[in-house]
Amino acid sequence: MKVGFLGALLGGFLLAASVAQAAPPSAVFDQTCAICHQAGGVGAPGEFPRLAGRAASLARFPLGRRLMIAAVLNGSIGRVQADHQTIMGVMPAFNQLTDVQACEALNYIASLDGGSAPPFTPAEVAAVRAHPMSPNEVNALARDPTVEAAAP
Ligand code: HEC
User: Fold this and answer.
1) Which of 49, 91, 103, 122 is surrounded by the most beta carbons within 10 Å?
2) Closest ligand 1 atom, CA of 90?
3) What are the pLDDT digits (tens) for 105-126?
4) Single pTM value for the model
């Protein structure tokens, strides 16, 4: 009886593990981010910033990477430029994502539009998580001139 129960439990666990392994690279993004940034990160003009292509540019320099990680962990509130339009945006915090899950979402958006940037690592996410920021502070990063120049 007991073995049967444990067997079923283990079977369920292995099934869950294999499903997780089979998940596409977009899985975390599709579940957590696409409702606003849209499938494939195409964004919604004037509402939600396009990430496809823009995220790849941001992921190529330290401040851009910090912004991306900080936006996911802390959210971001305020005016931002995206595709030469001003968005008055509110992004909620997703600090319930693990470091690994945050990396999956970040690496997915950095890969869109043929983007190739050094991969985000769980340690890099953990380092940003160790210094919580307000959504307004994250927004200030997004308005840094170097960020605006990289992803106008
Ligand atoms: C409820 C809508 C919503 C969801 C869900 C959402 N975002 Fe955002 N995101 C926004 C808005 C709005 C902004 C602009 C924030 C601002 O105005 O400061 C933004 C900004 C960003 C930025 C900064 C882009 C830039 O050009 O400054 C990144 C990177 C980002 N989001 C990634 C993600 C990722 C990854 C997820 C999923 C883990 C996600 N977002 C989920 C609405 C959302």
Assistant:
1) 49
2) 12
3) 999 999 999 988 999 999 999 9
4) 0.89
Q: Measure the CA angle with vertex 52, ends 84 and 41; round to 5°.
A: 105
Question: Coil, helix or strand for 44?
Answer: strand
Check pLDDT > 70 for residue 17.
no
Domain 24-150 falls in which CATH fold? Answer: Cytochrome Bc1 Complex; Chain D, domain 2 (1.10.760)
At position 64, the amino acid (one-letter code) is: G
Does the pLDDT of residue 5 top 90, yes or no?
no
Q: What is the DSSP string of 129-151?
A: HTS---HHHHHHHHTSHHHHHH-
Query: Average pLDDT in the 10-34 region?
Result: 75
Ligand 1 contact, 92 CB (< 6 A): yes
Judge if the beta carbon of residue 133 lies within 6 A of ligand 1.
Answer: no
Confidence of residue 23 (pLDDT cuts 50, 70, 90): confident
The DSSP-derived string for 67-94 is: HHHHHHHH-EEEEEEETTEEEEEEE---
